[in-house]
Design brief:
single chain, 269 residues, alpha/beta, FAD/NAD(P)-binding domain, eight-stranded mixed sheet, three-stranded antiparallel sheet, 38% helix, 25% strand, globular, binds ligand 48H
């Protein structure tokens, strides 16, 4: 190949590998313990993580996929326009997402625009992300308090179950948030161990009831464990709301308020 003037800096493979391993390891070590771990990077988890981090708490967001956003990229039926009912648009205002009022109190925004702005706002607030990381179990203390999560790489969690001894590791936190959507993985884990009532699953669609109920029921479901988003509907048998997201955004905000209050109480105790 003929020598040309270089466009890029003369950095080779080993430096690139070192940069990745070094930076990842330092951050991961630092986040072995956090103020709050949010599991699930859909709309409710992103808003909760962002609002808590904005108050200068240390927040780790655990997400099983390589991308964040959960169901917020798509409005419904694979169509990428997301809707919110008043007052959900206030969160869109906060993260500077444009929208259109299509009827009294109903707003439509672009899914990719809204979702990417919410992800950016979450990162800008200081939230760190452990993606490709699957929630596996809770860390539980004898005083009945959830004190962290047990995680593994997503590809490892998806290996055939007959392959054993690929143990997960634990991350500690003062509070944990279940934002895993319809499956409510963290609360179901508690339920499987008899530490929480059997989960009823979410009810059928009734948008006018569901979003109010979701925000009302968002909160601490067990000592140290807060639920937000669709996980709340699943945990309390609340109706679903279908393809509208104001409830998710406001549930995330309420989860953050509850978490901040608890962290302040813990600091005073
Ligand atoms: C790590 C995990 C694990 C795990 C799941 O589904 P989401 O978008 O959740 P919400 O509650 O923020 O929003 C719900 C909304 O998208 C929706 O589905 C609506 C409005 N439905 C209404 C209706 O009637 O159906 O995001 C959950 C996130 C995803 O990114 C998952 O990949 C992640 O959690 N996740 N991450 N470990 N075990 N399980």
């Amino acid at each position: 190949m003929a020598e040309r003037q270089r466009l890029f800096a003369p950095v080779g493979e080993k430096e690139i590998t070192r940069a990745i391993v070094d930076e990842f390891s330092k951050e991961f070590l630092d986040y072995v313990t956090s103020d709050v771990i949010v599991v699930g990077g859909g709309p409710s988890g992103l808003v909760a993580a962002k609002d808590i981090a904005k108050k200068k708490y240390k927040v780790l967001l655990v997400e099983r996929m390589n991308y964040l956003g959960g169901g917020f990229w798509i409005g419904g039926y694979l169509m990428n326009k997301v809707t919110v009912r008043d007052p959900g648009q206030k969160v869109l205002d906060e993260i500077e997402v444009p929208y259109k009022e299509v009827s009294d109190g109903l707003y439509v925004a672009d899914g990719p625009y809204a979702c990417s702005k919410l992800i950016a706002a979450t990162c800008e607030a200081g939230v760190k992300v452990a993606n490709m990381t699957m929630f596996d179990d809770l860390v539980y203390r004898e005083n009945g308090r959830v004190a962290g999560v047990v995680v593994n790489w997503t590809p490892i969690s998806n290996m055939p179950k007959e392959i054993t001894c690929l143990d997960p590791i634990a991350l500690e936190a003062k509070l944990v948030i279940d934002a895993t959507g319809h499956d409510a993985y963290l609360i179901s884990r508690l339920a499987k161990q008899g530490l929480y009532n059997k989960l009823p699953g979410h009810g059928s669609m009734w948008v006018e009831k569901s979003e109010d109920a979701l925000v009302e029921y968002t909160g601490e479901v067990a000592p140290g464990l807060i639920a937000c988003g669709m996980a709340v509907n699943t945990a309390f048998g609340l109706p679903r709301m279908g393809p509208t997201f104001g409830g998710m955004l406001l549930s995330g905000k309420k989860a953050a308020e509850v978490a901040i209050r608890r962290l302040q109480e813990q600091a005073r105790a």
